[in-house]
Amino acid sequence: MLSKNVDNMVIKKLWVGIGCQKGISQQLINLVIKKVFQENQLIYHEIAGIATIDKKASEIGLLEFCNLEKLPLKTFSAELLNNVLVPNPNNTITKLVGTSSVAEASAILAASEITSTEIMLLVPKQIFRLPEAPATITVAVAKSENLIF
């Protein structure tokens, strides 16, 4: 039997996929994710984790952001990411990292690991080039619909 606190429980079902250039800061990641969530009327506290390509597993800004927000960082190989059907593939990045999608594909893959069926790409990739930072960051958000308990 479920307790009375279930109504107050936050179900973390949103995975944020991130593609970024080397040297991206934790502050910029934080700013961009909050902007995406605000613009798309998503609940920030429903973030289950951050997902990206395995080549970014030691990216300081990503690690600092995940540590600060107490979120897991899931990484996937280019081969796995390349097998995910996404709405906005980019053949230019295929030459750089070996897959046509990092943000969308990693968000979808991460969300698919905690669900039994349906994954929704709530926010297709959004590309940010901010004047105060030379780096580019791409963000996508996927949602696990039917959670396995």
Characterization of the model:
This protein is of the alpha/beta class and 149 residues long. 31% of the residues lie in helices and 26% in strands. The chain has one domain (12-144): CobE/GbiG C-terminal domain (Nucleotidyltransferase, domain 5), CATH 3.30.420. It has five helices and five strands. α1 crosses α2. It starts with 13 loop residues before the first strand and ends in a 5-residue tail after the last strand. The model has no long low-confidence stretch (mean pLDDT 88).
Task: Show the helix and strand layout.
Layout: E1 14-20, H1 26-39, E2 47-53, H2 60-69, E3 73-76, H3 78-82, H4 91-97, H5 103-112, E4 119-129, E5 136-144
Parallel strand pairs: 1-2, 2-3
Antiparallel strand pairs: 1-5, 4-5
Features:
alpha/beta; globular; 5 helices; 149 residues; five-stranded mixed β-sheet; Nucleotidyltransferase, domain 5
> What share of the residues lie within helices?
25-40%
Overall 3D form: globular
- End-to-end distance: 13 Å
* CATH architectural name: 2-Layer Sandwich
Please outline what is shown here.
With 149 residues, the protein is α/β, with parallel strands linked by helices.
